[in-house]
Fold these 2 entries.
Entry 1:
Amino acid sequence: MIRQFELVETVKGYDPGADEDALNRAYVFAMKAHGSQRRASGDPYFSHPIEVAGILTQLKLDSASIMTALLHDTVEDTDTTVAEIETRFGKDVARLVDGVTKLTRIELQSESSKDAENFRKLVLAMSEDIRVLLVKLADRLHNMRTLHFVSAPEKRRRIALETMEIYAPLAERIGMQHFKDELEDLAFRELNPDARESIVKRLQFLQESGGNLDATVTKELSELFRKDGLEAEVTGRMKAPYSIWRKMQHKDIGFEQLSDIMAFRVIVNSVSACYHALGVLHSHYSVVPGRFKDYISTPKLNGYRSLHTGLIGPARQRIEVQIRTREMHEIAEYGVAAHWLYKQGDGPEPAGSVDGRQYRWVRELLDILEHASNPEEFLEHTKLAMFQDQVFCFTPKGELISLPRGATPVDFAYAVHSEIGDTCVGAKVNGRMVPLKHQLANGDQVEVMTSKNQTPSPDWEKFIVTGKAKARIRRFIRQRERAEYMELGKQIVQKAFRQQGYEFTEKALQGILKKLKAETVEDIYVHVGRGNTTANEVIRAVFPGDRQAQPARSDDEAIDAAEAAPPKAKAKSHKKDNAVPIKGLIPGMAVHFAHCCHPLPGERIVGIVTTGKGVTVHTIDCQTLDNFQDQPERWVDLAWSTDSSNDPYTGRLHVTLANEPGSLGSLSTTIGRNRANITNLKIVRRNVDFFEMLVDLEVTNVKHLTDVMAALRAMPTITSVERART
Ligand code: MN
């Protein structure tokens, strides 16, 4: 265990300006906070944060990081609060400790491993400061080094698996090869001890039987470079057992066929020297085809740069060689931490490594590094911008769903499954009910409630952010609406044909597609259903010679248009002659039914005499009658005769229905089932929630209309139905 003064001395060694007092206080505070807690190894718990701090001093991290390492488990495992840390050690350290604590909690929440990639992103998104991630990785590294002390096999396995899937790749992503290799090897040791053991034994055998191949090759290569006037440092090593294992698995080959288990590293002084060294090697040895990679001109996404080549080297052994500068080497081993170390330490400036082809966020880090006046400022502004535009949420089963920032439970539902999105009615976030427009945060657990009766709502479009949800809702609404308008339009067109005494055929409509600017017959129905085209226009298009079906005078009034052009059937009807079943009329007198109240057989009626126009029939409660209050001489007492015929009369309804898929459909179906025919309809007002429309129906009498109204009122999507009285 590193002692207090050793730790402080180490930090002061590379950062003379470090706050010695604060480091000492953090050390003592953490020691007291953990008190008599013990690790699985039997060591005092406090040995763990000290070791983690020790690992970070090897990366030469700033004193805030070292203090964070010392304090990193105090909030999670002791009574200490973040507020207390802030009071004692300042905002910066408190924020870092809080960040590490949050990561630890997320880690405990995870059971499933299938979302490894999303989980890595979640960890990155939650590590708002790169130091949080560095402390977390060092924490994990020390826990892995001491994993064998944990007695429960399942727990060991879970931790090892998590390391393999989450933390080793994360270390790789931020370029910390050194951390990655050790994490992987420690996890491999736990997950597949037999495989590891056999690989290690085989490596030992090769090492011994090869007569210290390592040293032979190193010597020969060094000699070669020296002769060519090139200053180079050559080192050789066996590849890590896990990387050999992965290669065996990946390429499905046995250990015997695995040739390049030896890797040599050549470190030179400049980029041009890298290519010089490559030239020396390629001109002396046979090159293994397909193994040459130039990661200097094309760096890896994590900023890694080197030349790789495969050779039949000294002693006819197949070897792999990596050529790089010292700086590239540091970055390869320590990634982001190396950049920082360069700025702070006495190493060369990293200017040469600022390269437009590097991974965006590494470049951003470097930009800040370049322009910040001191390392603290650099770290202060270093945010892991990479995944800041995303949020990661859990399903109740622990599955991780990645969404854009600002996403809502509806987006979440659609991301899980379209069906769940379509039928979602509510959501719980972390166990609490939230509105559907609630914005989700990182780490939220989201439970979506669904109902089979729910369909996507146009309202959702106002707050959802994912393209998938938007597309799905729009398509759904379009389809449903189209289907309804089509059905409605078809009924209206068929009816119009009947009324005009024609037999309806779709063939007739095929012939007028062009004329009505429609692609299919269905389109015509939709146009009519929507009211863009009237049934009369369709009739006129099919039978241009039919003079009865003349255009309306006022085209904007669909209903008036229909009445201005009375269908053939009506031309012969009671409304035009005196065969009207009304008692009290003077024979031969013209009769009109008022458009304001649409009187129906069975209703109490009254007539108003208009000079030159005959009698207009109103219902007794029609408001228009108020205008004639002081002209009693114009009133005529009327009544329906009892033998009223079954001829249809037009009744007009004012209907308010929900603006949602299905409502128009149920309107027309219900009317049809009640043996009434829609002769026209006109939308008078429409908004997000409902539309109001005037519906003209052919009914036999007032009871028939009242029956239809009662049936309509029973529909859940219809909010009100009244006789239209204008
Ligand atoms: Mn820890």
Note: DSSP finds 27 helices and 21 strands in the chain.
Entry 2:
Amino acid sequence: MVNSAPFPPLEVVILAAGKGTRMYSSTPKVLHAIAGQPLLGHVIAGARELGAKAIHVVIGYEGEKVQQAFSGQALNWALQQEQLGTGHAVAQALPQVDDDSMVLVLYGDVPLIRAETLRALTRRCTPDTLALLTVMSSDPTGLGRILRSPEEKVVAIVEEKDATPEQRQIRETNSGILVAPAKRLREWLGALTPQNAQGEYYLTDIIAMAATAGCAVNSVVVEDELEVLGVNNKLQLAQLERHYQARRARELLLTGVTLRDPARVDIRGQVECGRDVEIDVNVIFEGNVELEDNVSIGPNVIIRNSRIGSGTQVLANSLIEDADVQSQCSIGPYARLRPGTQLADGAKVGNFVEIKKAVIGKGSKVNHLSYIGDATVGEHVNIGAGTITCNYDGVNKFQTVIADGAFIGSNTALVAPVSIGKNATVGAGSTINQDVEAEDLSVARGRQRNIKGWKRPTKK
Ligand code: UD1
Ligand code: CA
């Protein structure tokens, strides 16, 4: 995405001082997550896409927690000590805003607003006009109503609590999002009074001031109501999560990805897909995930910050985290790839196998019930069922190295540090604590003894 700096310069003010009483939570409202990212994070990301010169966030309730959650980001913080209304909130940020900027007001709890919509809105603001985002609400209860003149010009916003019964019939409502020239905004905010039903300084009152001063209010009507829906409770949070996920699923479908059920995939980050990728139901992607051509993902799979190479199959109920998987591999069902796993072309990791910080070479197989950690496994190695790398002595971690072509019999304990040479064979049930040289066979288990005609004890 190219960030084209708008002209005149754009500054964004995000209101995030509210408590969110109806969330019944000790977490500030804007830190509740959609797709694993705080609501406010979504809004900030949208603002960044616009190429804003500065982003100001107005905080109040648990403001420190909010700041902490975004520490290290280029943001200006403004504190609103008391929540005296949306107009008062914007006024707290204005001292840091340049006179010749356009100010875009956003809400920390309105997460699904799209940069595209905001771009269209900012284009409607000039040094002498104001741009307002409105919406036709299926249920306008509680929202500010848009009052228009007979010529259809926006002349004022009236809050529900201050509205007459006739005004309450109006379905066009205020999204709260607007763009105004900083200089004028400063004047208007300075003139606000709390003479209204809620005793608050309403940002919405600037609309009538602008209209009266001959400053046209250009409106953009957003089509998707949920795009401007604010989160006030967990029900709305859940609705917006689903709406967001539906959007993401739709994007994948339209780029050619097969989703067995678009309602049963969750994307909490970025997913990049090649051609002919197939994704079964109940799959979760987190962080940055890359699926190359012809990858297929089975049901109930979770993939986090990983690349899956072309033609690889991930079978049901597998969990893959910080792993790099090359082409034509097979993973699962029920496999767990932990951070630092690397699978080379054609490697197979089967059911109930856990891999951690280990490289599995080309065509090598770890098919059943094994733990391979802190290990380097060469090419075409066969690791039998129930093999464990004993990598930890309770204090330190040690490496296991298995060279190309080795064969590890089932139920083997490899006590690290240890290495198994090229084409070496380890007999099943061995506990290996000394290196095995190339081409050798090592058997380290109690020798079998058969006792002829032995009688079991009988009851007296
Ligand atoms: C506001 C609008 C209303 C609009 C609605 C859309 C006003 C007066 N009314 O209603 O026209 O239809 O949004 O959802 O603007 N906030 C602060 N400090 C404050 C007050 C609010 O930071 O002192 C923040 C809140 O955290 C929230 C946002 O501003 O994120 C909106 O506040 P809220 O009380 O939800 O808005 P309403 O008054 O319901
Ligand atoms: Ca309010």
Note: The chain has seven helices and 37 strands.
